[in-house]
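Continuing the series of single-chain predictions for the mutant panel. This is the parent chain; the variants come on the following pages.
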Amino acid sequence: MTKACLRVMVEGPRDPAANMAVDETLLRAVAAGARGPVVRFYRWDPPSLSFGYAQDVARLVDPAVAAASGIGLVRRMTGGRAVFHGDEWTFSLVVPLTWFDRELAWAHAQGMSRRKGEESSTLAAGTSWPSTAPPAPAEGTAHASGGASQRGGSPLEEEPPFLVRFRALVAPFVTALREAGLDARFATDREIRRHRSDGAASSPGGGVHCYQAAAGHSIYVGDRKLVGAAGVVRDGVMAVHGSLPIRFVDLPVGIWRDPAAGRAWQGLHVAWLCDLLSAPDREALPHRLARSWAATWGLDCLADRLSEPEEQCAGRLASLRYARLDWKIAEPGWAEQEALLRAIGPF
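Parent structure:
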């Protein structure tokens, strides 16, 4: 029996609307049952600010000034705060929750077995769960085509909390970064509390930047934040957006309605990959991360690209939705948008 696959895409730059449209297309393909888990790594042209779904973009930045400064703007389907995609690897990770929760149940059972008689680690406040990446399957462990686990796991008695899923999804990246020689770890409770006040709306810059905050799934190297990420659950699928910043790129202060937000970006404590890895290692990092994720969950890696129907869907989503900064789920005309997208056909 062949293993299921992690679909891996490593792409060059696209414009901001196209990047976000591709990621929603991948979510749709997974939700339709046409695809299993997928991870995509990509870049941006032009350098762009992406905003969390709940952020009011027009209140935070002046779109005309941003355009004149050569800065793209886009609103994500995921939550969280603003991220400047200057020189970085961005990733999107999309998984079907029926499959992932079953795998998580297996990992949880294995973790409890290892910790028999011991108190389990805390993944999120008040939630007992294994605190590290789940164990990789033993050699020869098989997965059915389509992602059905053969490891004997049973469904969790209750749906895992969002943070538990989130942290388990990105934990293999911590493993891969450590294997690359970096002192990678999740944010501590102390860092989360400190950044909660630093990133508050009352703080300088209004707490609009992702890298002003720390959460239980934030990945640090040393005392600086490396991976900022945000997620969403839709149609039985969880999607995560994350950033791996390579080097500092200046962001014009004048694009912000509040200049303090621009100054806040310049003072963020970010772990830049250019200070941590050689150029060849930075270029190889997406493949290293993908291999770690696949090995953790018992999958093979499948290098892939968008299918023609997926390209068509992404193109339509970019024009219908992500070219606008004010799009909203269930907005007027939503049903008509969805009908146009369904007309493209199966993935």
